[in-house]
TrEMBL record:
SUPFAM superfamilies: Zn-dependent exopeptidases. GO terms for cellular component: outer membrane-bounded periplasmic space. Residues 63-177 form the MurNAc-LAA domain. InterPro entries: MurNAc-LAA_cat (IPR002508), N-acetylmuramoyl_amidase_3 (IPR050695). This is MurNAc-LAA domain-containing protein. One of its GO terms (molecular function) is N-acetylmuramoyl-L-alanine amidase activity. It comes from Bacillus safensis. Keywords: Hydrolase. GO terms for biological process: peptidoglycan catabolic process. Transmembrane segments: none annotated. CDD domains: MurNAc-LAA (cd02696).
Length: 181
């Protein structure tokens, strides 16, 4: 593949992210990101991660790390939560500004592969709603994954499984490879 990929597993250290059914988003994100790192490296990508352990960096620091990596794509790995425990599924947000066309294409490659890997409800590909400093990245494509709802008993059982996390990483890696073809 030979492409540069930056993976940002969201949250870390004192910032646990969403918590539910025995899952801490920060740990789930890091686990999935490490598995994805391995898969993408095996496919020939040059991967940099914003963190490889339970540490915390501000959003601006993570953005700076991503910019320094000069990545072709920036992957932000997260899990979702909702007060309504019946909310479930997988969704992908793409950058609606600088790299919108490439980001949309990448998100459209990734989303069905994640849904297929996990068997979760397909919540679709969506424009990034909130304006964040991630928009300043000058990479070819940016997307933000919500791998499932830690607040959902259905999704959390899936996301606890090492087998499913490995399948999820394989699905994301397959989508990234498909994007570069």
């Amino acid at each position: 593949m030979g492409k540069k990929v930056f993976i940002d597993p969201g949250h870390g250290a004192h910032d646990s992210g969403a918590v539910g059914y025995g899952l801490y988003e920060k740990n789930l994100n890091l686990d999935v990101a490490k598995r994805l790192n391995t898969k993408l490296n095996n496919a020939g990508a040059l991967v940099t991660m914003s963190r490889t352990s339970d540490t915390f960096d501000s959003l601006q620091t993570r953005v700076s790390k991503g910019a320094s990596a000069n990545a072709d794509i920036f992957i932000s790995v997260h899990a979702n939560s909702n007060d309504n425990s019946s909310a479930n599924g997988t969704e992908t947000y793409y950058d609606k500004t600088y790299a919108a066309a490439n980001s949309l294409k990448l998100a459209q490659n990734i989303q069905p592969k994640m849904v297929s890997a996990l068997g979760t409800r397909d919540r679709g590909v969506k424009k990034q709603l909130a304006s964040t400093s991630l928009n300043i990245l000058r990479c070819r494509a940016f997307f933000f994954l919500e791998t499932g709802f830690v607040s959902s008993p259905v999704d959390s059982n899936i996301l606890k499984s090492a087998t499913y996390k490995d399948r999820l990483a394989s699905g994301i890696s397959s989508g990234v490879s498909g994007y570069f073809r």
